[in-house]
Amino acid sequence: MTVKYESQKIAQNFFTFAVLLFLVQVAVGIIAALQFIWPDFFILNFNIIRSLHINALVVWLLVGLMGATYYVVPEESETELWSIPLARFQFWATVVTVTLVVLGYIWMGINPQANSTSLFGTGILNEGREYIEAPRWADILIALSVIIFLINNFMTVMKTKKWTGIQGTLLAGLTFLALMYIPGMFYTKSMVKDQFWWWWVVHLWVEGAWEVIAGALLAFMLMKTLNAQRHVVERWMYVEVALVLFTGILGTGHHYYWIGTPPYWLWIGGIFSSLEPIPLLVMVWDAFRTTREYRTVTNKVGLFYAVAHAIFNFVGAGLWGVIHTLPQVNKWTHGTQITTAHGHLAFYGAYVLLVLSMIYVTLPVIRGVREFSGSRAYQAFWWMTISMIFIVLTITGAGMVQTYMERLMGLDYVAVKTNYNLWFWIFRAIFGVGFLIGVAIFVIDYFRLGKEPLKIGTPEAVKITG
Ligand code: HEM
Ligand code: HEM
Ligand SMILES: [Fe+2]
Q: How many domains in the chain?
């Protein structure tokens, strides 16, 4: 089986860049973990390492979602992409911008004075808003790249005007995502207002736009891996997306408890964000129900990853989110390792597994593979997932100790971090290496998939049909 439209192959460029950044992100995460034990480890300080770790994460997920979109939109619109050269240009422009930003962070790490103020009033190498630290000139280039990307995809749909629910929802989610980048560029001298707008980007991305995209891609994957009927998967997709927006938009309030915004946010944030796990649970149910109803699986690995994504989206974002979302709890846990534990499991379950499942659903088709060995895909999954579960349990433990000793007993932050939590940091670093092994297996699989002969009778052989 091969792609229906040649231009869908452009997705592979984006996937390759994403996969390489994934490797960098995790390697850098291990350096960050070691710096909790030995603060002077490595030439770059923790602040730079941490920005590299989380920025690489956000960027590779976005690049992966772009690749997925370039695959889905021609397929759904039943036509070639509007312009392949434009897509190629957009790809290389993204690679160059991201590389420059990374070099800027490293330069700033070696020479802190280099981050002088630019014309926009913000740092020339780093703007200092967690997750979106890229400087203003890079923001503008990124915005241009995203505009080109959206135009190319919208024009593709306009060629045949075949609007499907899946591709419409996907593009609506991406447009929402692009619009939400703007509040991250407002410049104000008030820290309260700065934080207020900054959460629009961070929260409304991961608990709004990105979940809408996840809903659309989940429907697409269930359709492709199970031959499920379109009207069935689309019906549930609408329910999921509507509930995500209903709970997630006002759920932003769970970040407005203690930053200086009015007290009514305690109620709004508490109530709406407590409801956020519901749509994520509907997605899990949807994945299982569809799998049970349509028993003919056309790509076992793809379906496996897609179902795992639905489950861990619910566990990481839903459960590990709801435990600290009420103001009565968050008052104690705010900004501790409990938050970090949730951040890891939520991003891993919701978006890392989403991009990886889209890769396993589309890559065999892009490479024209009829059959491949799923063995490495499963190994990578278990190494990554078991390690991630242990990282999360470890730092949830660290967070409980931190909350108790620091917030209830009034011990000093550094005393708790260096003495009482040391073993948790050691375990986190060890499990981090386990996670890196999983990523390495995945990356090898990514480059080899479909390129080596399959031994007859391989038990993990995955046939691509349908
Ligand atoms: C896939 C979706 C989600 C992702 C990727 C995600 C990720 C994150 C991250 C990275 C942070 C830390 C932000 C920081 O640096 O301060 C955070 C904070 C938070 N998240 Fe989520 N989250 C998701 C969904 C949810 C859901 C559904 C809930 C609630 C049910 C939730 C509740 C919270 C709360 C209360 C905080 C603030 C913690 C604090 O006060 O320190 N999250 N989230
Ligand atoms: C796909 C896998 C990973 C994802 C999605 C991820 C995500 C994140 C996120 C969202 C944050 C910011 C959390 C916050 O501020 O609350 C973070 C910080 C961090 N990550 Fe990861 N990470 C991953 C893998 C790793 C690995 C393998 C390690 C190494 C053990 C690691 C070590 C760290 C450390 C030490 C921090 C800083 C924590 C802090 O400031 O308290 N990460 N990561
Ligand atoms: Fe949030």
A: 2
